[in-house]
Write a structure and sequence with these properties.
The protein contains 16 helices and four strands. By secondary structure, it is mainly α. The longest helix is centred in the N-terminal third of the chain and has 28 residues, at 47-74. It is globular. It comes from Panagrolaimus davidi. Pfam families: p450 (PF00067). Its cofactor is heme.
């Protein structure tokens, strides 16, 4: 994103951690009481704003940092640009247009082919920074947990690594792509431990009536925001079978996956607004696991929370 920070000391990472640093409602009696009691909705629906404001200052600070980084790029000469490494900020700036008319909001909501305004450019950079840090780290954590819980799968992954990764140079995109069991293992981990399910809301741009699987009908009015219940979908026995709660990587074998509903696996969302970093996150996760398993063995102990 145009910032060369020392590893582990990123100012951007600090802002991301602060954004996600809100308290766990379920561990505090009063917040959980209000959050779970419909009778107090006329009060509690406003408490969400308080949560947003606690994180807002860190979002504003991050936006300001990105804005300054863009300003530096705008003042750059072509010679200066040629001497440095091209990065994602350059890619985003290619989609920027300084004089885009944003007055007709209804057109902007449904328009597909358009350039980014400066504020959208900042917002996109901010989204990638937030979405690309905490989520991938969480997925890796859950993968290591499942490796420790299932030593039989750890052996299979290690054998696959030995077959395809013979040196440090082999830890690259093409070689990692050959690790088919590891790919299934990560997908199964993401199924049982969805890590960004609150980031998949959609707002209806038209009123629609949907037919449900139980033959009933559901009306969604224009302007209504909906959030799919991904943790429940991910273990729905009607979708995944009677063993839906069990950890079975081979359920993602092509022959086991071909008749499954396309919206059954949703850790990265779906449709036109699917996570743009999906492939990068999967590669980062698998490459990190390979690197770790070549050096360490993971086991549960008496402190492991199952």
């Amino acid at each position: 994103m145009g910032i060369d920070d020392e590893f582990g000391k990123s100012a951007f990472l600090h802002q991301v951690l602060q954004l996600f640093g809100t308290k766990d409602t379920a561990k505090h009696f009063i917040p959980s009481f209000f959050a779970g009691t419909y009778d107090f909705l006329f009060i509690t629906k406003y408490l969400q704003f308080l949560t947003i404001f606690t994180a807002l200052k860190f979002a504003i600070q991050m936006g300001s940092m990105i804005d300054k980084a863009i300003t530096v790029r705008e003042k750059e000469t072509s010679d200066e640009k040629a001497k440095r490494h091209q990065d994602f900020m350059d890619f985003l700036r290619e989609a920027q247009e300084d004089n885009l008319d944003t007055t007709n909001k209804s057109d902007m909501d449904i328009k597909i082919s358009k350039k980014l305004t400066r504020s959208e450019l900042i917002g996109s950079a901010q989204t990638f920074l937030i979405g690309g840090a905490d989520t991938t780290a969480t997925l890796i954590d859950y993968c290591l947990y499942e490796i420790a819980m299932h030593p039989e799968y750890e052996k299979i992954i290690l054998q696959e690594i030995d077959d395809f990764i013979t040196s440090e140079d082999d830890i690259n995109y093409n070689k990692i792509k050959d690790l088919e069991f590891l790919d299934r293992f990560v997908k199964e981990t993401a199924r049982l431990h969805p890590f960004a399910f609150t980031a998949t809301p959609r707002r209806a741009i038209e009123t629609v009536i949907l037919k449900c699987s139980d033959e009933t009908f559901l009306r969604i009015d224009k302007g209504i925001c909906i959030l799919p219940n991904i943790p429940v979908i991910s273990v729905d026995k009607n979708v995944w079978g009677k063993d839906a709660n069990e950890f079975i990587p081979d359920r993602f074998l092509p022959e086991n996956n071909e008749n499954r509903h396309p919206m059954a696996w949703l850790p990265f969302g779906a449709g036109p607004r699917i996570c743009p970093g999906k492939n990068l996150a999967m590669h980062e996760t698998k490459a990190t696991i390979v690197k770790l398993l070549k050096e360490f063995k993971f086991e549960i102990c008496n402190k492991t929370e199952v």
